[in-house]
Design a protein that fits this description.
Number of helices: 23
Number of strands: 8
Strand order of the largest sheet: 1-2
Number of domains: 3
Largest sheet: 2 strands, antiparallel
Bound molecules: NADPH dihydro-nicotinamide-adenine-dinucleotide phosphate, ligand LWLCTGZJ
Strand content: under 5%
Length: 497
């Protein structure tokens, strides 16, 4: 994909980056004294070091900048029309689920339809409008904003191992601080300390005001994505190869800038692994506490759902370094899709099962508990073992456990595994993840299809994601990818798909 001139620019930028920032450590051309001074500046004051690195980047002429950021020629997600549909329909779906589901029933579609038909027939009287507006809870709104601000503060201030991401198109490498688990622990402790003085009042209040939190998360998602889109035009930013079409709505949705940063604070990395996962973790606990407060006990279905999902979130934060090689970080820009996905979609839609069970408690027979546990353990095993095998093979190919694995070497130098987990299907890790999604929905029973939403949506997301990744790899590896596909014919489910 890289043109010759963009490669030349990449080398030029790389030289500047390597000599100026602690981000790229290996090939410095400065004197040891300068190097030492810079290293100590970056340790003592990472903000100043980041500014210094930014200043040291050569200013490109408009033509050079355009060569580094070629115009995107192909659309994904149905182009501008699809992007418009995503920006409008997905938030509406969140609102429909937030307002259409409560302890009286889980019927977002009927309620949504009634609401719209009343609106169309002008049955929407003033009293109704007033009652809607006065039911808005500004406290919940501000709580969500303070919660998000706290996550930013903790991410920036708590210590953590600093590691480098994959090499970017302009030759530079960014540094990321791994402190996800400390951020989760600190934010949960803060919340628990606040709510302890009020008994269990705070978590129950959060569960009761779920819809207001949904509105707040939507507001933040739009705010963050608008700011990200506008700031992508300031200065000479490295853009995502897929997000520079020039079409406003499309670029806004897919993400224009590759790695928006405020000094050392990486907005995309933060968004991907903090607000969504941590808010989801917390909302689930609130739903469980709400069930406990009404029943004076927890049902086995609630225990299973909350434990499984908490484990999934802890696992993601424990392995947070592995996200640095996913397409969200290496390829996609930061736009509405990721901001909305993480600030709003993940916490509000992924917590649906726990929310459903707090409104409609259910005790599962032992045989079903056994089925659910088997699915979760089997799914997690496939998910984690396959992801770890790929990470370990890529990072330590000489490790004894990787020595017997078969692979093909591509012309770009990367190796593609053709045995082990990655010889069974090209995205066997998706299968494991999807099996876990069944284990999370099954405890909700079959009285309503709504809590099954996650499992259905996730199948669509994974099938679409596999197609996107396939296109990316075909573009990157050309004929080598065809060779790999011949050896490993199945996409996600061995022998089936
Ligand atoms: N819960 C949720 O909502 C979601 C969860 N996920 C999960 O996130 C995880 C990461 O998924 P994702 O980012 O899609 O990508 P993957 O972890 O599946 O990685 C795909 C990349 O791996 C490399 N690769 C492909 N085949 C091989 C091979 N045979 N040998 C070695 N390397 C190979 C290629 O990158 P390269 O260019 O380096 O060769 C390819 O682009 C998955 O487990 C998924 O289930 C994802 C989305 C949503
Ligand atoms: C249609 C729509 C709302 C699109 C937005 C998609 C996002 C919800 C997902 C895109 C990739 C994601 C990942 C995770 C959560 C969902 C989103 C943001 C993830 C953080 C979940 C935990 C995993 O262990 C993971 C870290 C591998 C994963 C990364 C991708």
């Amino acid at each position: 994909m890289q043109t010759r001139s963009s490669r030349r620019l990449a080398n030029k930028r790389n030289a500047a980056n390597t000599s100026s920032s602690k981000d790229v450590k290996s090939t410095r051309s400065k004197s040891p004294a300068t190097t030492k001074r810079r290293a100590s500046t970056s340790k003592a004051n990472p903000k100043a070091a980041a500014k210094e690195a930014e200043k040291a980047k050569p200013t490109l002429t408009p033509r050079q900048w355009a060569a580094l950021n070629p115009k995107t020629k192909h659309y994904e997600f149905g182009g501008p029309l699809g992007a418009f549909a995503m920006v409008t329909c997905l938030p509406l779906l969140v609102l429909l689920f937030a307002f259409g589901c409560d302890s009286t029933g889980y019927e977002p579609l009927t309620r949504g339809y009634r609401f719209i038909s009343d609106l169309v027939q002008f049955k929407f009287d003033l009293d109704m409008l007033i009652s809607m507006l006065t039911s808005w809870n500004p406290t919940a709104f501000f709580c969500f904003i303070i919660f998000s601000a706290q996550l930013v503060t903790f991410t920036m201030s708590l210590p953590g191992e600093e590691i480098q991401g994959t090499e970017l198109r302009d030759g530079s490498k960014l540094t990321y601080r791994l402190n996800g688990l400390s951020v989760l622990q600190t934010s949960m402790t803060m919340i628990l300390m606040t709510s302890k003085s009020q008994g269990l009042y705070f978590p129950i209040w959060v569960a009761d005001n779920f819809r207001h939190f949904a509105v707040a998360s939507l507001f933040i998602a739009f705010l963050v994505s608008i700011i990200a889109y506008l700031s992508s035009f300031r200065g000479q930013k490295l853009l995502a190869l897929g997000g520079n079409t020039g079409n406003t709505i499309y670029d806004f949705m897919i993400g224009r800038e590759l790695n928006p940063r405020i000094n050392t604070f990486d907005v995309k990395y933060f968004t991907e692994l903090r607000p969504g996962l941590i808010a989801w973790f917390f909302l689930n606990i609130c739903m469980a506490i709400k069930q406990y407060s009404t029943l004076q006990r927890l049902t086995n279905s609630m225990i299973l759902v909350v434990l499984f999902q908490a484990f999934y979130i802890l696992d993601a934060l424990w392995n947070e370094a592995s996200i640095l090689s996913t397409m969200d970080i290496t390829t996609d820009g930061f736009g509405f899709m990721l901001a909305f996905g993480n600030f709003c979609w993940v916490p509000m839609m992924y917590s649906l099962q726990a929310r459903y069970l707090s409104d409609f408690p259910l005790d599962l027979p032992y045989w079903l508990v056994a089925v659910v546990i088997t699915l979760e353990v089997g799914g997690y095993y496939i998910f984690r073992a396959s992801n770890s095998q790929k990470d370990s093979f890529r990072q330590k190919p000489d490790d004894p456990k990787n020595k017997d694995l078969e692979y093909i070497t591509t012309r770009s130098g990367s190796r593609l595994l053709t045995s082990g987990w990655w010889g069974k299907a090209r995205h066997i890790n998706y299968l494991g993840d999807w099996m876990m999604s069944i284990a999370w929905c099954l405890p909700c029973g079959f009285s309503s299809v709504i809590p099954w939403f996650y499992c259905i949506y996730f199948a669509i997301l994974l099938i679409h994601r596999e197609r996107r990744d396939d296109a990316k790899c075909r573009d990157k590896y050309g004929k080598d990818w065809d060779r790999y596909c011949e050896k490993v014919p199945y996409r996600i489910v061995p022998g089936v798909y």
